[in-house]
Amino acid sequence: MNLKDQITNIFVQIDDFCKEFDVQIKKL
After folding, report:
1. By residue range, what is the domain housing residue 16?
2. Which domain of life is it from (predicted)?
């Protein structure tokens, strides 16, 4: 796995986390 793929994967995880966080905030 090259560096570009690792960076892309990290950004995808961050994006998923932010979406999930947003959903949780709206539930409050």
Report:
1. 1-28
2. Bacteria
Question: Residue 13 is which amino acid?
Answer: Q
Task: State pTM to two decimals.
Answer: 0.64
Question: What letters, b where the CB count within 10 A reaches 16 and e where it falls short, cover 1-27?
Answer: eeeeeeeeeeeeeeeeeeeeeeeeeee
Query: How far out from the chain centre does Cα 21 lie?
Result: 10
Residue 20 has pLDDT above 90, yes or no: yes
With H, G, I as helix, E, B as strand and everything else as coil, classify residue 1: coil
Task: Please tell me the total count of domains within the chain.
Answer: 1
Q: Which two tokens stand for residue 17?
A: 């986390």
